[in-house]
Design brief:
15 helices; two-stranded parallel ribbon; about 350 residues; alpha/beta; globular; 6-stranded parallel β-sheet
Length: about 350
């Protein structure tokens, strides 16, 4: 876990045990919140090197969070209903929570859906259609698989390629961080995918097979569509970071994603989720381009509570993070108290050490 996540976890625990979070709630809790998740499944076994574990929570934690949210007095609603409540600004409405999942992982159906169905929880999956078509690269999963299974990794150092050892946990972590930096800060979006395909070929990783293993199919999405608890959201086709693209590139990726969802599922989503959703992947200009498509709202991954005056094309969400599967931390999320402090610290850190966050 990196320092940023350690600070957030420590801050939440301090707010909980000091009681300060509860005291601040009257000013920080807002109208409600949108949770974001990626993967849901049993605790991983096998190799200890799992750098994407922050994207993975257990079904038990998801169920406990649903129960905790309701016990705290919040109503769990669909994303559409959440937007309705923000629009009407009725002080008589209860505070609410909405559950969303990004990308289209198969375990959303296999492991999350039974929990959501059992508790009658509406949910949205933001689908990157290229993952479902098996034409786009789930590059962060691919890098993890390559580094986990490899003993050495070819990476760029300056203008030349070199080979890093990847036998021990420490060596694997260093290789993964090096590749992550290269992919997200040195390569453009198109170049990133070209290098991913080259790296996968060199290490014998079948990217389409990886997508078959991890991601939903169109038939599985159609199965989910039969349940009124489920709503599909837009998430582009190729899952590019929009702020790193040209206007034409942004429009083409958004439009293609919408076209595939309409063709396969017969629906045009009213809500959009920015791929990655962090500051360097979302800016005011990318929001303007997204707005051209007539979405009712668009969601980021910037943490925060919802308020009636929030910009509808840059709504915050709260990550149910695999590193923070802790009841006390979720309790603080519900008060909203950690987020003003976290966002202030994040703003300062970004100004001092600019960086691009991954998935």
């Amino acid at each position: 876990m990196d320092i940023r996540r350690q600070v957030l976890a420590g801050g939440c625990k301090l707010l909980h045990w000091s009681g300060v979070g509860t005291l601040l709630a009257q000013w920080t809790q807002g109208a409600g919140l949108i949770f974001t998740l990626h993967r849901v499944g049993p605790r991983a076994t096998g190799p200890s090197f799992r750098p994407n574990d922050h994207l993975h929570v257990t079904p038990d934690f998801l169920e406990a969070t649903i129960q905790q949210v309701r016990a705290a007095g919040l109503e769990i609603v669909s994303l559409s209903e959440a937007l309705d409540r923000l629009d009407r600004k009725d002080p008589g409405d209860r505070r609410f929570a909405a559950f969303t999942f990004d990308d289209g992982y198969r375990d959303n159906l296999v492991h999350a859906y039974p929990v959501l169905k059992r508790h009658g929880v509406p949910f949205t999956i933001f689908v990157a259609s290229g993952f479902i078509d098996r034409t786009s690269e789930i590059w962060w999963e691919a890098i993890e698989r390559i580094v986990c299974e490899g003993t050495e990794i070819e990476v760029p150092v300056g203008s030349t390629m070199t080979t890093l050892p990847a036998c021990t946990y420490r060596e694997k972590r260093q290789a993964f961080i090096h590749l992550l930096h290269w992919f997200t800060r040195e390569l453009g979006e198109a170049s990133q995918r070209l290098e991913m395909r080259r790296l996968a070929e060199r290490h014998g990783l079948d990217l389409a097979a990886l997508a078959d293993e991890l991601m939903l199919t169109w038939d599985e999405l159609r199965e989910l569509r039969r349940d009124p608890l489920f709503t599909v959201g837009a998430h582009t086709h190729d899952h590019f970071a929009l702020a790193r693209m040209t206007d034409t590139g942004m429009r083409e990726d958004i439009a293609r994603g919408l076209e595939r969802l309409e063709a396969e599922l017969g629906v045009r989503p009213e809500v959009f989720a920015y791929p990655y959703g962090y500051e360097a992947a979302v800016n005011s200009h990318s929001a303007e381009v997204v707005g051209e498509f007539g979405f009712r709202a668009a969601v980021t991954t910037s943490p925060g509570m919802l308020h009636a005056d929030d910009a509808r094309l840059a709504l915050p969400r709260v990550s149910l993070n695999g590193y923070f599967q802790n009841r006390d931390i979720v309790a603080q999320y519900l008060t909203g108290a950690p987020f003003p402090l976290y966002n202030a610290a994040h703003w300062l850190r970004q100004r001092l050490t600019p960086q691009w966050s991954s998935v």
